[in-house]
Amino acid sequence: MLFYMYLFTFGLFFLFLFLFAKRLQLSEQTTQSRSTEMATMVPSNLSLATVATRFSSGMSTRFLDKPPSFMVNSPLYRNFAAKVRASPAIATVETVLGTDLNEQEANPNQKKQVLACPICYDTLIWNGDPVFSVDSTPGSILKCSTCKKSYSGNETHLDLTVASGTKKYGEYKPASSELFRLPLVSFLYERGWRQAFSISGGFPGPQQEFEMMKDYLNPVIGGSIIDASCGSGMFSRLFQKSGLFSLVVALDYSESMLKQCYDFIKQEENISNENLILVRADIARLPFASSSIDAVHAGAALHCWPSPSSGVAEISRILRPGGVFVATTYILDVPYPLMPFVSPIRETIGQVSGSRIFLSESELKDLCRSCGLVDITCVRNRQFVMISARKPA
């Protein structure tokens, strides 16, 4: 009886948060609409030529700066080679493990187009600073070479969602997604929210979880990694400071989470801004080319995705052959005889909250297997589970 009361309370909680988030969203849209109306009242005698001149002169230094090349070629990783490249037109990253840099230059087919249009998955032309870095996003414009849609970067991140640039169109999002878009939740996430996972669910903590996943990530050291649903960027910063990867992408759907991630990166010492980018994207429509990424990490996120199968399928698509997927989530262990009674309640809660409650390790393994991943393993600590899988070579 207590178990059913818990599930019912959980559903009501997410329903309340969803309604609260929608009200905040409507208030924000009203404020933006008023701001647009005020913008149309700017005096007509304003010199546009002056503004254009200042803009072009400010951008020119960014275009003319010659970025330094980045190579991972230390004795510790002499068997791996990773080189990030970007032409003025198309931003690319090369990642070939276990080969020499000269071999890479001799074989241009090994180049990997990283960023892609989330609509048609074709190449994005980057009209901006060609260097992948946190500081390269402001003012950057990316355009799809096929559908011609443009995407832009703001002060903190690149917005590569399908609905990027829309002004009037909006979509319903489940409560689990809207919850983490609230600025208050984003502020609290690394200031007590995530730490509570250790008490309630047995999560070891970011540093220990990072050490646990190193064995799984070892085959792709020197390559690129996406920290999916990165939140405030705890693991993104760990990946970057470790020096184990040639490119780190901090990815989340929440704008406020990415803002927190950006602020923490700027405040943290001993972290390089180069080869680290922040991207807003939908986990079910990732803006990366197929078979272009070496590793994807999703920390405490699977249960929050509206459709875990769509998210894992997208991850499988963008992973290169041999690429690694590592994720952590909760498992609510339920005795097998109670499964027929618990499953309908879980589905009801999922429809209201947009999140999923996993009931067993076999369910997680089956999810990864159905999306084409192999070599699936699980490590448990109470409700905490770390699952790893690999894309077939």
From TrEMBL:
<dbReference type="GO" id="GO:0032259">
    <property type="term" value="P:methylation"/>
</dbReference>
<keyword id="KW-0150">Chloroplast</keyword>
<comment type="similarity">
    <text>Belongs to the methyltransferase superfamily.</text>
</comment>
<keyword id="KW-0808">Transferase</keyword>
<dbReference type="GO" id="GO:0010287">
    <property type="term" value="C:plastoglobule"/>
</dbReference>
<dbReference type="InterPro" id="IPR013216">
    <property type="entry name" value="Methyltransf_11"/>
</dbReference>
<keyword id="KW-0809">Transit peptide</keyword>
<keyword id="KW-0489">Methyltransferase</keyword>
<keyword id="KW-0934">Plastid</keyword>
<dbReference type="InterPro" id="IPR029063">
    <property type="entry name" value="SAM-dependent_MTases_sf"/>
</dbReference>
<dbReference type="GO" id="GO:0009820">
    <property type="term" value="P:alkaloid metabolic process"/>
</dbReference>
<feature type="domain" description="Methyltransferase type 11">
    <location>
        <begin position="227"/>
        <end position="326"/>
    </location>
</feature>
<dbReference type="GO" id="GO:0008757">
    <property type="term" value="F:S-adenosylmethionine-dependent methyltransferase activity"/>
</dbReference>
<dbReference type="Pfam" id="PF08241">
    <property type="entry name" value="Methyltransf_11"/>
</dbReference>
<protein>
    <recommendedName>
        <fullName>Methyltransferase type 11 domain-containing protein</fullName>
    </recommendedName>
</protein>
